[in-house]
Structures are given as C-alpha cells and as structure tokens.
Amino acid sequence: MTKNEFLKELEKKLKDLSAADMKKSVEFYSEMLDDLMEDGISEEEAIESLGNIDDIAQQIKSNQSFDVPQNTARKPAWFNIVIFLCAFPIWFALVAVYIALWAVLVSLYIADLALVFTGILGIAAFPFLLGSPASAFFTLGEAAAAIGLSVLLFFGLNILGKLYFKFTRWLLIKIQYFLTKEAA
C-alpha cells in the first residue's frame, strides 16, 4: 500500500467526522509518514509501522472532542498577555538554554573542522621535518590521530544533530498544539 492509498483509505474510514477534523487527522498521518520516510524507513514499512488502518480510524474517532457550545466564556486577550508576561522568566530561560544547546553543537562542529585542518597541516609539515626523523614521525602520527578523531567526532555530531532536529520538531508540535488549544 502506498502513502496516497493509505491516506485515501483513512479518509474513507473517517467520512463521518467533520471535514476539518478529517483533514487534520489525514494531514497528521501524512506528516508522520513523511517523518518516518525521512528517517530512512521505506514507504511500505512506514505504513506497516502505523498499524491497522481500522484501529487508527477507530482511535481517531474515539479521541474527537464534542462541539463546544458557542456561549462558553472565553478568557479575555489581556489575560493571556498577563500570563505570558508572568511566565517570562521561565520561558525566556528555556529559550536561552535551547539556543545554548545549538551553540554547543555548532562549536563542536567548528572544533571538528579544526581537527581536520590540524591533521592536514601535520601531514603537509611531514616532509619539512625529515631532518629529525623522530619529530617527523611523531608529527605524522599526531596528524593521523587528529584526522581519525575528527571522523569519529563528525559521525557522533551528526547523530546529535539529528536528535536536536527531532527535539525541535517535537517542541514545535507541542507549541503549536498549545497555541491552537488556547485559541480554540
């Protein structure tokens, strides 16, 4: 089953929901499949990992909220502004920590690049140090170790970077959920 077939089948199973709820659910599963395929899973495996489409549709239907009457009291806009300002020390500190984590990752990539240049310069300096063979071979060994360490560090940083991106995606989804929940 392809992604499009899966999404069309899901739409059929959710036909008794409102158009907005059906669209929201289908978009959610479309994005989930895209994320799984971005992580290297094939389209068929991604669809299979979601489970039975009937179970998915049943779960979506059971999680749908009932329509809220239009007369419900809403909090005034100034209330949200006051809450936003009162929570400033908390969310500002969290944003600062988040930015600092990204700065650490960028700094580690720069350090990795410096290790590569150190290795290249060590190899380039090898012929000029032949007057002292011990020093020349020591420099060559340092250069090889620097390049080897930079390769290992590069792969480790790529894994860490992927985790950061997944965390960022999760965080944005949670923020979007919170903001749409407040607006509703």
If you had to describe this structure to a student in words, what would you say it looks like?
By secondary structure, this protein is mostly helical. It has two domains: 61 residues, no CATH class; 107 residues. The chain has seven helices and no strands. α1 packs antiparallel against α2, α1 crosses α4 and α6 runs antiparallel to α7. It is elongated, with a radius of gyration of 27 Å. About 4% of the residues have low confidence.
Question: Which labels suit this protein?
Answer:
81% helix; 0% strand; 184 residues; mainly alpha; 7 helices; 2 domains
Describe the structure in brief.
This protein is mainly alpha-helical. Helix content is 81%, strand content 0%.
How far apart, in Å, are the first and last alpha carbons? 36 Å
Helix content: over 70%
Number of domains: 2
Structural class: mainly alpha
Strand content: under 5%
- pLDDT < 50 stretches: 65-72
Helix and strand pattern: HHHHHHH
By DSSP, the count of extended strands is 0
Radius of gyration: 27 Å
Instruction: Please work out how many helical segments DSSP would assign.
Output: 7
Overall morphology: elongated
- Largest sheet: number of strands, sense, barrel closure: none
Report the average pLDDT across residues: 85
